[in-house]
Amino acid sequence: MTMYGANPEQLSQLGATLSRQIDAVETMRSAVDSAVANTVWHGPARDRFVEEWNGSFTQALTSLVEAFDLAGRDCVARADELRRVMGVG
């Protein structure tokens, strides 16, 4: 028999874990921004890297943050709804 549903506590924990990853991504983005700004590096390779970092890399990280935020909030909301339906918490 297939089980449907979730353990509300575990679902809340998953939501919190996903939300915490936002800080990790933002910390990494900030560290790379700082490293790029403070590295003496001239030439076309640097120009390409900076263009990619400020373009596609940063866009990908922004999308990742948005996905973690949405998924984290969704998990918490579903856990709250499960608790409501189950009459607990």
Q: Could you describe the 3D structure shown?
A:
The mean pLDDT is 94. The radius of gyration is 20 Å and the shape is elongated. It is mainly alpha-helical. It has a single domain, classed as Helix Hairpins, CATH 1.10.287. The chain contains 2 helices and no strands. The protein has helices at residues 8-37, 44-86. α1 runs antiparallel to α2.
What is the global morphology? elongated
CATH architecture descriptor: Orthogonal Bundle
Order of helices and strands: HH
Q: Report the total helices.
A: 2
Total DSSP E strands = 0
Question: What does this entry show, briefly?
Answer:
This protein has helices at 8-37, 44-86. The protein is mostly helical and 89 residues long.
Question: How are the secondary structure elements laid out?
Answer:
Layout: H1 8-37, H2 44-86
Keywords:
89 residues, Helix Hairpins, elongated, mainly alpha, 82% helix, single chain, 0% strand
